[in-house]
Write a structure and sequence with these properties.
TIM Barrel; binds zinc ion; 8 helices; about 20% strand; alpha/beta; binds D-xylitol-5-phosphate; about 220 residues
Length: about 220
């Protein structure tokens, strides 16, 4: 059984002191940092871009798990790579040529992730599963933190895990959106080995980040 990794989303952090938040997350045992990039076009919200990621890079050596909710995405991949991203995850709907975008991320020496929105079927990315590092399964419609986990997506996670096991693929299964202390077990049982969480980690138990990360991992 693969170790469950926790990737806290700084979308739920304090944008006036993200560097400090990142240090707190590292001290609390986070395995990576989930950075939600939104452009107000692919999703109806706007967050941060490469300059902010560049300035945050010095606060931790943990991997930056960068979730690009932007389109068109291809022409910005190199900027996010140079800014210090370690995993670059894109949505298949956001690029004209998914194979070119995957190849570009790999040519930059970064791990490549593909993200599936709740209504996006696995077959949208199935032919690339043998060449990627991560599938980010959205359990909310992207754009905002603090939303409710969409339980119907658990079936998709199970199907994805079956495909992974049957073909001996190596990609990680990351679940993102509305993860809490109840549904985390369902996501893990379904096949996830990386959990993203913003609200539950930053807000629960009076903001005891270390306790919340450990509770999510179990
Ligand atoms: C939503 C983002 C998620 C979100 C997770 O578009 O991709 O990463 O920030 O936050 P919570 O855990 O609060 O749903
Ligand atoms: Zn995300």
């Amino acid at each position: 059984m693969k170790k469950i990794l926790i990737s806290p989303s700084i979308l739920a952090g304090d944008f006036s002191q993200l560097g400090k938040d990142i240090q707190k997350l590292e001290d609390a045992g986070a395995d990576m940092i989930h950075v939600d990039v939104m452009d107000g076009h692919f999703v109806p919200n706007i967050t941060i871009g490469p300059p902010v990621i560049k300035s945050l890079r010095k606060y931790t050596d943990l991997p930056f798990d960068v979730h690009l909710m932007i389109s068109p995405v291809h022409k910005y991949i190199e900027d996010f790579s140079k800014a210090g991203s370690d995993i670059i995850t894109i949505h298949p709907e956001a690029t004209e040529n998914l194979k070119d975008s995957i190849d570009l991320i790999k040519s930059l020496g970064k791990k490549v992730g593909l993200s599936l929105n709740p209504d996006t079927p696995i077959d949208k990315i199935e032919k690339y599963l043998d060449q990627i590092d991560l599938v980010l399964v959205m359990t909310v419609y992207p754009g905002f933190g603090g939303q409710k986990f969409i339980s119907k997506v658990l079936k998709k996670i199970k199907n994805l895990k079956n495909i992974k096991d049957e073909n001996k693929f190596r990609f990680d299964i990351e679940v993102d959106g509305g993860v809490n202390f109840e549904n985390n077990k369902l996501a893990i049982e379904a096949g996830a080995n990386i959990l993203v969480s913003g609200t539950t980690i930053f807000k629960n138990n009076n903001g005891d980040i270390k306790k919340n990360i450990n509770l999510l991992r179990t």
